[in-house]
Amino acid sequence: MKNLKDECVAWIRDWFAQNGPSCNAVIGMSGGKDSTITAALCARALGPGRVVGVAMPAEGQSLNEADEICAYLGISCLCLPIGAIEKECDALGALLPGGEFSLQSLQNIPPRIRMTMLYAVAQSMGGMVANTCNLSEDYIGYATLFGDAAGSFSPLGRLVVREVLAIGDDLGLPRKWVHKTPDDGLPGSCPDEEKFGFSYATLDRYIREGVCDDPEVKEKIDRMHRRNLFKTEILHIPSFIPDNL
Q1: Would residue 131 count as lying in a domain?
Q2: Separation CA 57–CA 79 (nearest Å)
Q3: Which residues constitute the domain of residue 38?
Q4: Are the C-beta atoms of residues 130 and 136 closer than 8 Å to each other?
Q5: Does residue 27 belong to any structural domain of this protein?
C-alpha cells in the first residue's frame, strides 16, 4: 500500500493548487487527533505560514492543548471563545412554543457556531475551511450537520481511525496528541467508545473488511449508519423536474 501520509499531503497540495493557490487552510483546533493531524498534513503540504488554527472553547471549556499543538506545528493560532454567542442562542429558546430548545439541539449549537466562525475567519483571511471528520465517525453519523460535518475540503474523510492514527505516527507527532482518548468535550460526557458501546477497532474492521464478530454490535452499527446517511449524502433535489425546465 502506498504511503498514506504522502498521498494525503500530495492531495491537499493539488486541491489548493486547483481551488485556491494563494489561500490558507483554516482549521478548527479541538485538541483532538483529527484536527491535530489535519493541521499537520496541511502544514506539510502548504507550509506552516499558510495554516490558521482556530480554537473556539465554549463556556467552561479548556483549550485542550490546542494552543500547544499550534505552537508545535508552527502555525498561527486564533482563540475565539464562543461562550457569549452560545448564551445568546440558548436564550432564543424562550421564544419557542415550549419555552426552550431540546437537549440535542442545545448540544448541536456549539459546533454550528464554530463552523460559522471558521467560515468568517476563512472569508476574512483568504482561507478554505478544513473538514476534520474521519470515515469511521462519518459512517455512524458521529458529526453535526452544518457543524463539524461541514467544510470545503476533507483530507481524512475516506480514512478510518486506525489509518488516521498511522498517519499521525508517520508524521512523527507526539503520541499524547495522536493517541489521546477521543470524546466530544461536552460537560459530564464520556469517551467516544464508551458512548458507542463498541470500539473504533471494531468499527474500522467492519468498514474495511465487512467483519463484526458480535451480531448485536453489527446491527447497532448498521442502524446508526442507516439513520445518519442523510448527513453525508448530496442534498436531495426532486428528480422529476427536468434540468431544461
Answers
A1: yes
A2: 8
A3: 4-189
A4: no
A5: yes
Digit-coded pLDDT (tens) for 182-211 = 876 666 678 999 999 999 999 999 999 999
What distance in Å separates the CA atoms of residue 29 and residue 56, rounded to the nearest whole number?
8
Alpha-carbon span 126 to 121, nearest angstrom: 8
Which residues have a Cβ under 8 Å from the Cβ of 98 and sit 6 or more positions away?
none
Average pLDDT of every residue of the chain: 94
pLDDT in tens, 134-155: 999 999 999 999 999 999 999 9
Whether 126 is in a domain gets the answer yes
Q: Where are the alpha helices (DSSP H) in 126-214?
A: 135-139, 161-170, 175-178, 192-196, 200-209
Interval 79-107: pLDDT, tens? 999 999 999 999 999 999 999 999 999 99
Are 52 and 78 in contact, with CB atoms under 8 Å apart?
A: yes
Please state, in angstroms and rounded to a whole number, the distance separating the CA atoms of residues 150 and 115.
7
**Closest C-alpha to 160, from 57, 33, 27:** 33
Please, which residues bridge with residue 78 across strands?
A: 54
pTM score, whole prediction: 0.94
Beta-carbon contacts of residue 243 (< 8 Å; ≥ 6 apart): none
Domain count for the chain, please give it.
1
Cα dihedral 19, 234, 51, 136 sign: negative
Q: In which region does residue 243 sit, left (phi positive, over 0), alpha (psi from -120 to 50) or beta (all else)?
A: alpha
162: CATH: 3.40.50.620
Determine the Cα–Cα distance for residues 135 and 19; give it in Å rounded to an integer: 23
